[in-house]
């Protein structure tokens, strides 16, 4: 036991003195999580998408278009939209500079054509090609608006001349006439009531109170990405730790050890313990630091902690086994990196499992421990999937244990035989 | 009783017989040099002595007990200084010493005190807090040596400990080892430097192709060549065969024959002046004849037909 502690302290001291390789494996996943998380909305509690900046170019400049412009500034819409009133050229320039998501052009003569119904009216939409979500949302909403305007046009067409007089008065709209026109329109709508009310198809919006209290109105993208990054980079970290056995051989300290102590078991065991400690430290930085930096509220910290512990156990065992199997430092370097990367990709660490090719998704991914960690942590966080974290943790521990014993035997055998680079 | 005794040690790697029936003894306070060119089998021998390799045949006895009867106890008796620096670059000199000392069985306080003592002795006390990668080659060698001495071993195995360091650092290390021997430590020292073996080792074993060819004190080895009479004849020997010269074989033994040089030793206790006269009278054009004391290189030359430096 004393030897294990002695060797662990020595290795931790060495890692502390030369922290760059360790820090890279901690920094890179945090950076990737930050970049991807921010690109997909981060953890904004008020709106996942932010306000959509859209230009309204009113070339008609009538009382009706003024009314339309006004609706965009209403409270409900202003939460989602940030309208900018500009000329066509100004709007185009701002789109080119990526300062607007889209521009809605209300063409000249819009009101007259709309009310007369003699010609179909067209609202023009210019979308910013450099953006994806926001212009699409504007397009969808504009579709709803044109449908509404179409209904409205059919309702007011019999009173076209009267409406035109109301809007064409030089001193401004005649509100008393407008009131009687609205009343008449209302009566028409009333006659259509049996067809419209009650609606035959309804929509009920349910918000989960618990989720709203802990996560805000939206989910936290970082909490979705971080487990995947952690699963992948813990493998890299494990690889770095266990390959230290080869460095011991290269530095000849392994030989010196053999001149001082009988047997290699303490050395190999100490290195595996070192790997485990480094992985737990790294995991704590990932998940603990993630909570602080990305404001992730882990809903089941105990479950996440146990999963992290068992996954670290697995990762140390797996990478030690791979390194022992490779037999040589350079070979292990290449092999372990490729295998870790493949396990990360196929295990859904970088892309959601649903995005993976069918064969991979259905036949490979479910068998990968990287996927077990990712799915289990996401399940505890978002309630997705049917993964039982306790069951997966147990499975990770068992496999890790078997791999560690095998790796220790392999390493001992190789080192005893004196195999060199 | 000798501290170390090897009996007919043999080791084969595939087709290569690295060591063949090597046997020697090292007594307490003695410096025994194992001299041979690179690839002669020195490191393999030392690896078998310290338990890094198991011999295919033969025995290693430490104070009369077979090494493998209790490997851990045997290891405690010896300190090993490997040929290459075997230290942790990221640890300081003191941390390295304390780590290896504790691994060898010292307690925390004991290791701390012993490390301080060795740092003083090795003149590294002022650099004890620097990490090894900031040390010069000579300083690394000294710490490398110190790590093997932490547990005060009765037998010290040194595998070419002065390779690649400057003459001053080499002198310091050799002086330190000499003091250790004076204090009663048995020392097995492998080297391919003739001068080190000649002036530093009390007994020398000459090893080549895995076999000990000769063993003894420097004087014993010189006697193999006919006492202290070695002659270097500068002459055109390109086309001549010395064995064909009348009476030559009875009086001289050829150690080396080059186109323009002949190295010979006198057979029996001939008078050097008489030998010089006979060599000058050889049936070739002789430019010069030099009489010198035989060196280890001459002995090696006699035993193997080639120079140690080749």
Protein architecture, described:
The complex is a heterodimer of chains A (421) and B (310). With 421 residues, chain A is mainly α. Chain A is built from 20 helices and 4 strands. Chain A has helices at 2-17, 20-39, 63-72, 75-80, 88-96, 110-116, 133-156, 160-168, 175-191, 193-196, 209-215, 221-242, 244-250, 253-260, 265-293, 301-326, 329-346, 358-364, 369-382, 389-416; strands at 52-58, 81-85, 102-106, 124-127. A 4-stranded mixed beta sheet of chain A has the order 2-1-3-4, sandwiched between helices. In chain A, helix 2 (20-39) runs parallel beside helix 15 (265-293) and helix 15 packs across helix 16 (301-326). Chain A starts with a helix and ends in a 5-residue tail after the last helix. With 310 residues, chain B is an alpha/beta fold. Chain B has 2 domains: 4-217, 3-Layer(aba) Sandwich (Rossmann fold), CATH 3.40.50.300; 226-293. Chain B has 11 helices and 14 strands. Chain B has helices spanning 42-49, 71-77, 93-103, 108-121, 137-149, 167-182, 194-200, 218-223, 248-251, 272-280, 296-304; strands at residues 4-13, 16-26, 31-35, 57-62, 65-66, 78-81, 155-159, 186-191, 203-208, 211-216, 230-235, 252-257, 261-266, 286-292. In chain B, the strands form 3 sheets. Chain B has a 6-stranded mixed beta sheet, with helices on both faces. Chain B starts with a strand and ends in a 6-residue tail after the last helix. The chains are: A mainly alpha (421), B alpha/beta (310). The A-B interface holds A 3, 6, 10, 13-14, 17-18, 251-253, 255-262, 418 and B 50-53, 71-72, 75, 78, 80, 82, 84-91, 95, 99-100, 102-104, 131, 147.
